[in-house]
């Protein structure tokens, strides 16, 4: 069986969240290789390449998904895009859990379902791990993010019950300039205002945007793969080490330190994610034969920064 046997070249692939950092990069990559990308949008479709959905109202134009060989769900409110108020935490949970459940139920109604349903998730599943190395065999942690991730993955139940291969991409911190948690760091460090956060000893499990997209494609096109996969580089680093690498690659000083109390005052609950330590490794991804292009932090930062 060929690697892409279940998602043939040129086939239709639907993406929810195609306007985000990861979704837009994945859509570009697939389109460049001749796949027909179908984007789920919350407004009226502007052409055959768009399908209307409204997760808040639990509505999807299921007919528009007919004939798709794969469905990718990367939609949801940004976890690190604003302060975690009680209201915004509810927005995060609703957008990810309700959105996933809505899409999964729509896919489950199709007479000819896709070969694979690839659902976004996050290494927040594991919560605080300290210095302990954790892979996909670990149980979920405690707190808002682990509880969210458990619900988020559980919301795929309808499509899993149909027998469709279902994959969970537990993504780490994506090293990219166009958005996500890492995006704001580039202008800060380029201005010479970057520095470690808190004591700097917390582990950050990162992945380059290039490798994130490549890993998602690997999960889509390898029919033997299902269940959870950590999308992180093989060797997580501490915030102190990453701060030094940012300064080294961008040729800027990293003299500033943001104390933990200040981060908590400014960011609220998000600060626990920044100050917490998550030392996550991609055991299953490596065992499946995936090869990283930018496993080292300097190369990942350089790839994201682009021409100097």
Explain what you see.
With 308 residues, this protein is α/β, with parallel strands linked by helices. The protein has a single domain (12-305), classed as 3-Layer(aba) Sandwich (Rossmann fold). The protein contains eleven helices and 16 strands. The strands form five sheets. It has an eight-stranded mixed sheet with strand order 4-3-2-1-5-6-8-13, sandwiched between helices. Strands 7-16 form a two-stranded parallel ribbon. Helix 1 crosses helix 6 and helix 2 (86-108) runs parallel beside helix 3 (144-154). The protein is globular.
Number of strands: 16
What's the helical proportion of residues? Answer: 25-40%
Quickly give the structural class. alpha/beta
Q: What's the CATH first level?
A: Alpha Beta
> What is the rounded distance between the termini?
44 Å
Radius of gyration: 19 Å
Mean pLDDT across the residues is 91
Shape: globular
In CATH, the topology is named: Rossmann fold
* CATH-defined architecture: 3-Layer(aba) Sandwich
What portion of the residues fall into strands of 2 or more residues?
15-25%
Enumerate the spans where pLDDT stays under 50 for 5 or more consecutive residues: 1-5
Following the backbone from N to C, one meets helices and strands in this order, namely: EHEEEEHEEHHEEHEEEHEEHEHHEHH
Give the strand order, joined by hyphens, for the main sheet. 4-3-2-1-5-6-8-13
Figure out the total of helices: 11
**Count of separate structural domains:** 1
CATH superfamily: NAD(P)-binding Rossmann-like Domain
Query: How would you sum up the major sheet?
Result: 8 strands, mixed
């Amino acid at each position: 069986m060929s690697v892409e046997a279940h998602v043939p070249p040129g086939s239709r692939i639907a993406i929810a969240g195609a306007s985000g950092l990861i979704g837009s990069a994945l859509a570009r990559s697939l389109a460049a290789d001749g796949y027909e990308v179908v984007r789920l949008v919350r407004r009226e479709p502007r052409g055959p390449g768009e399908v209307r959905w409204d997760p808040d109202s639990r509505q999807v134009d299921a007919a528009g998904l007919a004939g798709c060989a794969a469905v990718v769900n990367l939609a949801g409110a940004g976890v690190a895009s604003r302060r975690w108020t009680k209201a915004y935490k509810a927005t995060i949970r609703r957008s990810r859990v309700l959105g996933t459940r809505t899409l999964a139920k729509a896919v489950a109604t199709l007479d000819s379902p896709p070969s694979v349903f690839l659902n976004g998730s996050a290494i927040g599943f594991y919560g605080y791990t300290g210095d302990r190395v954790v892979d996909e065999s670990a149980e979920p942690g405690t707190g808002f993010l682990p509880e969210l991730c458990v619900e988020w993955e559980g919301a795929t139940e309808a499509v899993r019950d149909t027998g469709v291969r279902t994959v969970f991409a537990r993504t780490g911190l994506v090293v990219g300039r166009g958005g996500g948690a890492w995006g704001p760091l580039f202008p800060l460090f380029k201005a010479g205002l970057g520095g470690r956060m808190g004591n700097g000893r917390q582990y950050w499990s990162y992945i380059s945007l290039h490798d994130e997209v490549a890993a998602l494609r690997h999960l889509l096109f390898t029919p033997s793969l299902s269940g959870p996969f950590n999308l992180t580089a093989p060797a997580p680093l501490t915030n102190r080490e990453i701060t030094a690498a940012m300064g080294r690659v961008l040729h800027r000083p990293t003299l500033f330190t943001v104390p933990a109390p200040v981060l908590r005052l400014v960011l609220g609950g998000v600060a626990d994610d920044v100050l917490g330590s998550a030392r996550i490794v991609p055991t299953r991804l490596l065992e499946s034969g995936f090869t990283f292009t930018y496993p080292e932090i300097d190369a990942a930062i350089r790839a994201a920064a682009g021409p100097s």
